[in-house]
């Protein structure tokens, strides 16, 4: 296995991103699995850690198949996978119903993970979006588009592992893509971790708490 667990993956990923140490980067994790990976990167780069809340919009009868994704915000950003929608015959009413459910889950997670803390401003800064891997790419693409709208100086996607074909697509969304391992025959992200147990809500809350003080004390240079 390339990675023992998400912490190990984060440490390896941090080594590939060390050139951004002390460059006022902001590390944005996709919860929940991306948080322990991103925490290692943020610690190594002396960067604040924040979340980018994104949910897959799954096909009603096959929820693991993404027909889109939605990202948190005053006006949530929805990214549609028109090919999957057409192939599965999902109509607009069904799509909206699933989308509304995921928006509600995003709101739940935002309140639980962040309470009243506002998001860290990434405008004019290096934004590094991190997850524990890429599967279909729908949620990753949505996260990148939403982050781009926040006007970072540079947008970086950093993941431990991904399907080779997905990386070309991600190059169109990010200014730089850092991926430690990519495979033509991918399967699932968990295949590349010895320990891929689910990250809990409490682990996310505890990790963010460790970084909260540094984030609030950070001053512009």
Describe this structure as you would to a colleague.
The protein has seven helices and eight strands, in the order H-E-H-E-E-E-E-H-H-E-H-E-H-E-H. The protein has 221 residues and is of the alpha/beta class. It folds into two domains: 6-53 and 117-217, Rossmann fold (3-Layer(aba) Sandwich); 56-113. It is globular. The protein starts with 5 loop residues before the first helix and ends with a helix.
Discrete helix count: 7
Distance between the termini: 41 Å
Helix and strand pattern = HEHEEEEHHEHEHEH
Number of strands: 8
What is the CATH T-level topology of the largest domain?
Rossmann fold
- The chain-level structural class is alpha/beta
* Average pLDDT level: 92
- Classify the beta-strand content into a percent band: 15-25%
Compute the CA-based radius of gyration: 17 Å
Percent of residues in helices: 40-55%
Assign the CATH architecture of the largest domain: 3-Layer(aba) Sandwich
Strand order of the largest sheet: 2-1-6-7-8
The stretches of 5 or more residues where confidence is low (pLDDT under 50) are: none
The biggest beta sheet is recorded as: 5 strands, parallel
Shape annotation: globular
Regarding CATH, which class of the largest domain? Alpha Beta
Number of domains: 2
